[in-house]
Amino acid sequence: MLDIRYIKENKDLVKSNLKKRFQTDKIGLVDNLIKKHQEWVQAKKELDQTRALRNKLSQEINQLKKQKKDASKQLDLAKNIPSLISNLESLSSLLWEEIESMKKNIPNIIHKSAPIGKDATQNKVLHKKGIIPKFSFPIKNHVELAESLNIADFDASAKVSGRGFYYLKNELALLNQALLRFAIDFMQKKKYTYIEPPLMINKKVASAAGDLNAFELALYKIEGEELYLIPTAEHALLGMLSNEVIDEKKLPLKFFGYSMSFRKEIGSHGINEKGLWRTHQFNKVEQFIFCKPEDSYKYYLELRKNSEEIFKKLKLPYRILESCSGDLSDWKSKGEDIEVYRPTTKKYEEIGSLSNCTDYQARELNIRVLRKNGEKQIVHTLNNTALATSRAMVAIVENYQQRDGSIKIPAVLQKYTGFNKIEKKK
């Protein structure tokens, strides 16, 4: 969330930002928030003054009693103070809760380089890389190929868990593990610290990561507990440094985490279709950086470069698509998707997402950097997908398919799989 002082000092900029995001319905919220904060400041002032009066009267009463003098006037003044303090504490607390709730509805400030547009149709293609394969035979989609090769079972998983789940078998299961090992080795060579995070997070972390109301449509909640299955390792990595103060000499902190990820995907197009492209459960390696505010866009480019290198090594055609202002999530200052080409749909489709959240996420979790001059600032956080294996497998199966129905394995993965082709058993 944004700092209330920043909102008050930059009211016009915050309102302009809402216009750029096409959220003009929230413009009145800015003035209401500032008004509510002024009420809180006044309530807090009265509370402090009343507590000071209580302490003053207490000292006077004690002094008068020691001197065996009449303290009835002071006692009479003091008798109503506890209830007055209690009322002011309740008012102050209630106002602050309202302020915090209102702040969560005000989005992050968009970076000046982000394109302005109302929706995803106005996102900007930055570049395309890789060679789109040409086939001289009728191609099949990944479900047809996987079932014909007996390397996945989507009907059995539907009986056991419902649509959106899958059984990986034989070589495809090994390919999944090969992709994980490849991504882990790649990120280790980049000197990022490897983390296997908890698969559940509490409500505070989920709320800090983004819009909890929207997330709750996607998150699996643990019944009877304030815990959610993670939709990505990003959220658990973010929460790892809650309430920490980090010496600036230790920044940046560069992590990457592997986890299973879980999403309801309620209302998502295609969730009831067979296959691996849109699923409730998937494996993902995620990049995450905590850094000094002035460095975040340097690391934004680094995270993008990491993901591009991965897809270049896999020799999969991809493009980078920058999110326009209207398609940018509230917690992001700037964002991009990496999309892989699918010959079966003849489209580029999202396989990863890069975000600079500046100080928006870290503020709610109180993650700070200690500067040389002793000042404490909120750190900036960035994240980017390294590799989501289910979608990567779809791209490999469809782009590397052969006339005889077999599938070649990208050369960079063969040392992990132990085979260079998936073909029908004789």
Description:
The protein has 426 residues and is of the alpha+beta class. The protein has 15 helices and 17 strands. The strands form five sheets. Strands 1-10-11-12-15-9-8-4 form an eight-stranded mixed β-sheet. A three-stranded mixed β-sheet has the order 7-13-14, with no helix packed on it. Helix 3 (27-66) runs antiparallel to helix 4, helix 3 (27-66) runs antiparallel to helix 5 and helix 9 (203-209) crosses helix 11. It starts with a helix and ends with a strand. The mean pLDDT is 95.
Put the structure in a nutshell.
The protein has about 425 residues and is α+β, with helices and mostly antiparallel strands. The chain is built from 15 helices and 17 strands. It has helices at about 5-10, 10-20, 25-65, 70-80, 80-105, 140-150, 155-160, 170-190, 205-210, 210-215, 235-240, 295-315, 360-365, 390-400, 415; strands spanning about 125-130, 150-155, 165-170, 195, 200, 225-230, 245, 255-260, 280-290, 320, 335-340, 345-355, 370, 375-380, 380-390, 405-410, 420.
Name the features.
eight-stranded mixed β-sheet; alpha+beta; Helix Hairpins; about 425 residues; about 20% strand; BirA Bifunctional Protein, domain 2; 15 helices
Rg measurement, Å? 27 Å
How many alpha or pi helices? 15
- The count of strands amounts to 17
Number of domains: 2
Q: How would you classify the quaternary structure?
A: single chain
Calculate the terminal CA-CA distance, rounded to whole Å: 59 Å
Which segments are poorly predicted (pLDDT under 50) over 5 or more consecutive residues? none
- The CATH class of the largest domain: Alpha Beta
**What is the name of the CATH superfamily of the largest domain?**
Bira Bifunctional Protein, Domain 2
Major sheet strand order: 1-10-11-12-15-9-8-4
Beta content: 15-25%
Report the helical percentage: 40-55%
Largest sheet: 8 strands, mixed
Task: Look at the structure and give the mean pLDDT.
Answer: 95
CATH architectural group of the largest domain: 2-Layer Sandwich
What is the CATH third-level topology name of the largest domain?
BirA Bifunctional Protein, domain 2
Give the overall silhouette.
Answer: elongated
Helix and strand composition category: alpha+beta
